[in-house]
Amino acid sequence: xxxxxxxxxxxxxxxxxxxxxxxxxxxxxxxxxxxxxxxxxxxxxxxxxxxxxxxxxxxxxxxxxxxxxxxxxxxxxxxxxxxxxxxxxxxxxxxxxxxxxxxxxxxxxxxxxxxxxxxxxxxxxxxxxxxxxxxxxxxxxxxxxxxxxxxxxxxxxxxxxxxxxxxxxxxxxxxxxxxxxxxxxxxxxxxxxxxxxxxxxxxxxxxxxxxxxxxxxxxxxxxxxxxxxxxxxxxxxxxxxxxxxxxxxxxxxxxxxxxxxxxxxxxxxxxxxxxxxxxxxxxxxxxxxxxxxxxxxxxxxxxxxxxxxxxxxxxxxxxxxxxxxxxxxxxxxxxxxxxxxxxxxxxxxxxxxxxxxxxxxxxxxxxxxxxxxxxxxxxxxxxxxxxxxxxxxxxxxxxxxxxxxxxxxxxxxxxxxxxxxxxxx
Length: 425
Hints:
By secondary structure, this protein is an alpha+beta fold. 47% of the residues lie in helices and 11% in strands.
């Protein structure tokens, strides 16, 4: 059938190269039970927006810069990346993002203007933020510490607002924070957001969504995540702004996961000597493996960052070496038990060696004393028999005992007898 002929199912003009002359919509309906349409076709058919260019994409969505003629404003329009080809669970996530962010009104959170559908594909029309992301800003070198602290304080304040509205972000990272024209950070991409009072998740069992380097251990291990999980991610953002690298870096995702679950992050001060000690302490407090040891709320983190900026004492305190060791033992009980057993064996072995050495020394001392007594007796006999040379040899075979040694008198007396006998001859 020539390409110019209409689709035999719906009568519409098929695209060039269409299979059996059928349009993409009908092909999708036949194969998947849903009508398909190329993204460009959907965009061009929209009368609400003029799509200008693609400005970003992630694992689930693609974002376009668009113009809304009716209000004469530019916006960012987010749509599912694969459209009708997307995984079945992506649409619920997309709608969850819309539901979560639509009710949030905060200067640190990108505002959603409209939620709707274009040809069956859900979309979000959002405020357009044209500045770079924090990931782009810190790609080559760390930020000055006070600037980094200011950004994270403002982000923490925005996240505290979201928590107050019952919304967890669950995917905070530098790439999801944009800077506006006033150099204010704006949080975006609530695609993994979750209601605090909801027990229903949008991820499948065993599935990890988000970037492992910024996710808290409890989210990676399938545990319950609360506001302190977002606090961990805020600490990871602060860490990267201070050091130009995430807190955990590995060659593979599996290695990164192991580090997040079991390793302690390197102190930011060791990677960047310009980081003040208080800011280092504050950052590491956010990155504790145990949620109860972090800041309890994003608002608490924002308040401590404000104290740091004002030059006031912060509430966080550094972790001592003993505490760090105890925490490591709690996370690695089997390895800690083996290490303890080895340490005990080493101590017991060392004590055993010391005891044996002392016994050997005592035995050698006893043998030396016995030999000395025998040689002195033999020297005395040799003198009495007139064998002066043998007596001298026996006495010279032993060092003269020191002052106070009870043997010293006998040795001196025999030696003087030897000398006297020598002079007499």
